[in-house]
Structures are given as C-alpha cells and as structure tokens.
Amino acid sequence: MHAHSADIRLYTFGHSLINHALPITPIPSDETTIAHWIHDISQAAGHGFAAGGQYGFLTSHDDLPPNANWGYDNVPAVWEGDTQSFSEANINTILLTAANFIQYQPANQPHPLDNSTTAVQSTQAIFDWVHENSLQQTNVTFYIYENWPEMDLQSAFPPTPPTQVEIDNFHQLTLNNFNDWWIDYDALIRASRPQYAIELIPVGPIISKLLTDIIPNQIPFPELYEDSAPHGRATLYFLAAMITYMAIYNENIPSNYMPDTIVHPVIRNNLAQIRNFIWSQLEQEIIFENGFE
Hints:
37% of the residues lie in helices and 13% in strands. It is of the alpha/beta class. Strand 4 (110-111) and strand 5 form a beta hairpin.
C-alpha cells in the first residue's frame, strides 16, 4: 500500500458507474455519485475533500488535456478548468475506470471502441500526462476503480426485474471472469509504470460479495439497480463510495457515521457489520497487489 493523505483532492476520469447524473428515480442532490458520499463521510471524519472529473471512456479520456465537466451541489470543486491550469489545482489523487462492457477483450489488445489503442495504452497516456502536469509529481496516487459488469438479461429491465438466476449469474461474473480482467489490467499498468503509486479498488466484487454473503437477498434488486447497464440507485453509490473512501483515505469510515435515509434501511441497520466487512476485504494485501479474491 502507498501513503495516503487526509486531504484528498480528487480528479476522476470516469463514467456513470461513478457519477450517475441522470437517474430514473429523482434524487434530492447528487446521491447517485460517489463524490457526494465520500464528501459526506470525510466531513464526519474531519478530513478535507474536493472533487471533480469528466465523463467518458478511456478512448476519449486519453484525448488530453482533461476537460473537467463534473460538478456537485455540496462537494468543493477541485479544479476550475476555465481559470486554472491543471497543475494549479494541486490534485493529489486520480480515480480512473474503464468501460464495463469491454471485458471480452484483453486489456492489452485493441480496444473495442477504438482499435488504434488498448485499455492499457490509454491508461498509460492519461497517467503519464497527469504525472507530467502535476505539482504533486511523485505524491499523486492513481486508483483504478473496478466497477461491475453489464447485465445479460432475457427481458428488458426496466420494466421486468431480472430473475434470481440472472442475479446470481451477474454476481458470479463480477466475482470471477470480470474480476480477472481487472486484475490483469491493473498488473499490466503497474508493471509498465513502476514509478507510479497505483492501486486497484475492487468496488464491484466487494459489493457482490457483500450482497451474496453478508446480506443475501435482503434488498430487492430494483432497490439497488435501476437498469441493466446497470446504473445504481443511491444505495449502490453509497456502498461504492464507502469502499472508495476506505481505499483513498486508508481508514474505515467513522464508527458514528450514518448516511441519510435515502440509503436503504437494510444498509443503515447493518452498517457496523458492513463497514467492518468492507474494511476486512481492503485490509488484505491481495486487494492492493493482485485484486480481489
């Protein structure tokens, strides 16, 4: 593991499994973004947090310089792209994710969206640009956010919820072949850029293990996910944010923290067990060295 700061200035190269800006179910603020919840937790912990980022996939994110287009109601902005250079933003943390529908192609083979590059090459280009244009230089930590896969369903969701067999298959895919792709991707990036601090955050696998082993069948699928992409509802992004918070701050969430009631009561009522389960997964050395098992 690498050194972690108590004052996180985060820039994200992401998409809607990190920042879901147009949920089907109306929300009060930005509850379907992980930045909203990380900020909420960091306030309870007394830490600094500012965030920003951009929507796209690796094949557009590597069209540099970055184009900041994410903002939030309550989260301090990390970079005013119209008035500041990237280096002036003093960003110390990068979060990056790949698409969740390309895992049939190895990360070092032509990218399904652009065969002139690969997931590895696009990621290298982004990390190199950040390194060259950051005041922090060697103090920047790069996090790869492992999301969750697209669902393969017989009937469209919505309106038809997936069957239990389809739900089970989704979680098994997340924990096995999908996860293997991310482990390989992370290993290739770290091997090619050993001078950078790079960590994989296995968000999707931890959520799947939580939902199948710790609180199995306690939350109806449509109360976690809203479509087969699958975009999540507020509860899912809260869980993703808990995992990401623990990784980037290298600490558990505060024991007295409680999210507001937009988060499902099963999560709120079992938060002590859930927080300790997630932390135990992230404490294992294999999380940061080889992925999730």
